[in-house]
Amino acid sequence: xxxxxxxxxxxxxxxxxxxxxxxxxxxxxxxxxxxxxxxxxxxxxxxxxxxxxxxxxxxxxxxxxxxxxxxxxxxxxxxxxxxxxxxxxxxxxxxxxxxxxxxxxxxxxxxxxxxxxxxxxxxxxxxxxxxxxxxxxxxxx
Amino acid sequence: xxxxxxxxxxxxxxxxxxxxxxxxxxxxxxxxxxxxxxxxxxxxxxxxxxxxxxxxxxxxxxxxxxxxxxxxxxxxxxxxxxxxxxxxxxxxxxxxxxxxxxxxxxxxxxxxxxxxxxxxxxxxxxxxxxxxxxxxxxxxxxxxxxxxxxxxxxxxxxxxxxxxxxxxxxxxxxxxxxxxxxxxxxxxxxxxxxxxxxxxxxxxxxxxxxxxxxxxxxxxxxxxxxxxxxxxxxxxxxxxxxxxxxxxxxxxxxxxxxxxxxxxxxxxxx
Lengths: 141, 270
Known about the structure:
Order of helices and strands of chain B: HHHHHEEHHHHH
Distance between the termini of chain B: 25 Å
Largest interface: A-B, 71 and 70 residues
Shape of chain A: elongated
Shape of chain B: globular
Oligomer: heterodimer
Radius of gyration of chain A: 20 Å
Structural class of chain B: mainly alpha
Number of strands of chain A: 2
Largest sheet of chain B: 2 strands, antiparallel
Order of helices and strands of chain A: HEHHHE
Strand content of chain A: under 5%
Helix content of chain B: over 70%
Number of helices of chain A: 4
Strand order of the largest sheet of chain A: 1-2
Number of strands of chain B: 2
């Protein structure tokens, strides 16, 4: 079954809310890639191999250090900070995508799907809170 | 970690990402065995790294597919209720399972995927067209027929159940789970294959994010290892998508099914 003369609403590509969701994803992936590439480049350019901490900071500690900018000024510290930030940004991109979807559905006044999106968002935030609460430093290989 | 190690991780990610995209099953299924068997990374860290790679590839692909109108956003959000819940449960269960047992579970799932791929190769999937009706129905532009195709969605409960299983496997083993969700959406719910694949890809990033933080919280993410491997998988997946259009791979798929079985045996006996 096909429609050769679709109505504008059915001509699916690039409805405004879809463009917004797409943009959110592009920004998240783009920024995190730049940060990870930057961190790895700095690590690779050092004379000595990059020193990975024997114990990873806990999630709470990591967030606190990123916000305070207290990672240190050595090339090793800057490289690690950029990689951690890139990874966290990437992990937060789906959160931003679900938030963008929720806002899009509210603008469309599609309340049933606003509820569905909010439920997904609540589960994501719930596991993030659980992760922060149970966060422990871990040993790196 | 030396520059050579970084390069090895990046190249490993590149190869696993390319192969995963060529076969349409994502990079995780090959990245985890590469990290465990070749690099010697503990299983939980390999799973965590794979989850981040899944987020990267899914988000990049979804950005394009959403704009093209191939993703059924409403269907994706409904199924995400099940996959996200499953992923959280999977990650919590994974931390109570020791290395060896987790490897064995991974091996069994690899074998199941190999059998599924074999089945799909022998019997091309055809789903009957469903009349577009209800809030989940949609339309997409099909290049092959140069027209907008409307479609409906049926039997959502069964697909929700399979999505719950796929989410649990994702949280437990760091794979996307599309290999289970795509056939469910297509064969059970009657969603066209292109839409099912794009919608599954759209969902797996959120599913992976639902468990990635739990792995992070347990200290299972090494920033250097993860960044190198994730960037490799990301670029490899992009290359794989381009290559997949040129390579009609029945022979290649059979070859990789054999590789999957061999690696699954190695993971089982390690």
